[in-house]
C-alpha cells in the first residue's frame, strides 16, 4: 500500500492512531503470562485488521483513579494518543473511597484526554452484591455520567460475560478477583465494539 493510500485511509490524523490504555491490574496482565492479557490481544487484532494503529499499555496493578489522574498528563505528553481507554475505579471501590472522588478523577482524566485531542473510551465497572444495591447502582451510574459529560464511548460493564455468569469461577484466578487467561478474549470482546466505533474506518 502506497503512502498516498494510507494517508487517504486515515484523514483525521497526521500520524497513525495511538491507543493509550490507562488501567489497573485488570489491564496490566496481573497473574498472567506476558502477552495473554486483553490489551495484548487487542494489539494482535489490530495488527490484522488495522495495522496502522499502535497500542500503549500504561496500566499499573493496584492503581486508583487518583493515581491515573496524577499520571495522565505525562502519559498524554509522552505518547500523544489519538484514543485513550480508561479502565479504573474498581480499586477505589475496594478501598471504600468516596464515589464523588472517583467520578471527579475520571472526569478530569477524560477532559485532559479530550483537551489533548484524543477520543475517550471508559470501561465501566459494577460491584458485587455484597457492596449493597444502592452503592452498586451509584457506582455504575457515575461511569454513565462521565461518558455523557465528555462525549466518551462507554463499555457498560467491562467484566460482562466473566463476572456475571453462572460459571464465573472458571474465569478467575485463585484469588477470585483477577480474571484468568481464559477470560481475556471475553474482555476484549466487550471493549472492541465500542472502541471500533471511535477508530477511523
Automatic annotation (TrEMBL):
It holds the Pfam family Lipase_GDSL_2. It comes from Ramlibacter aurantiacus. Gene3D superfamilies: SGNH hydrolase. CDD domains: Lysophospholipase_L1_like. Residues 21-182 form the SGNH hydrolase-type esterase domain. PANTHER family: THIOESTERASE 1/PROTEASE 1/LYSOPHOSPHOLIPASE L1, THIOESTERASE 1_PROTEASE 1_LYSOPHOSPHOLIPASE L1. One of its GO terms (molecular function) is phosphatidylcholine lysophospholipase activity. This is Arylesterase. Signal peptide: none annotated.
